[in-house]
Amino acid sequence: MVRAGLTPERLARAGAELADEVGFDQVTVSALARRFDVKVASLYSHLKNSQDLRTRIALLALEELADRGAVALAGRAGKDALTAFANVYRDYAREHPGRYAAAQFRLDPEAAAASAGGRHAQMTRAILRGYDLTEPDQTHAVRMLGSVFHGYVSLEMGGGFSHSAPDSQETWTRVLDALDALLRNWPAP
């Protein structure tokens, strides 16, 4: 049995891998115990329950996404930054569908405050500074971008765009062009 070296971090990473393989909704402490060929009880010295495991996977996914976003945004502004940031989300969802689903997991207020979620908002606001938006328009735009990115990626991953032409990449490019145009010409209140 592989008990040595089990830590909450190692279990979260293994849970994230499992989520990518079978779906985030299928990840439980029992499934993770089977993966390590240990008894469920042996994992409870590292995890409180399945909710704790799912929270840890969500925190890991948010951190990975934030790290990728920071790298993608370095030295970019305007449409170039918007496109790079949007592509981080889309690429991450394609590479890690279970982790991407975990990044949408509702966290309790304490976990959310300690998560990389704040970094995501900061990066989005940094992009928006290139469009000269002020409050409350900046908050509206942060919500709009998150909704469009997540909505498009979710529909695409669910096969929603695979039944007709044009190709999904062409539409993605047009969506990002439209967002850029909208942000450059943000409507006055």
TrEMBL record:
Keyword DNA-binding belongs to the record: yes
SUPFAM superfamilies with a match to the protein in the record: Homeodomain-like (SSF46689), Tetracyclin repressor-like, C-terminal domain (SSF48498)
Keywords: DNA-binding, Transcription, Transcription regulation
Domain HTH tetR-type, first and last residues per copy: 5-65
UniProt source species: Streptomyces flavidovirens
Name of the protein in its database record: TetR/AcrR family transcriptional regulator
Keyword Transcription regulation listed: yes
Pfam families documented for this protein: TetR_C_33, TetR_N
DNA-binding region: 28-47
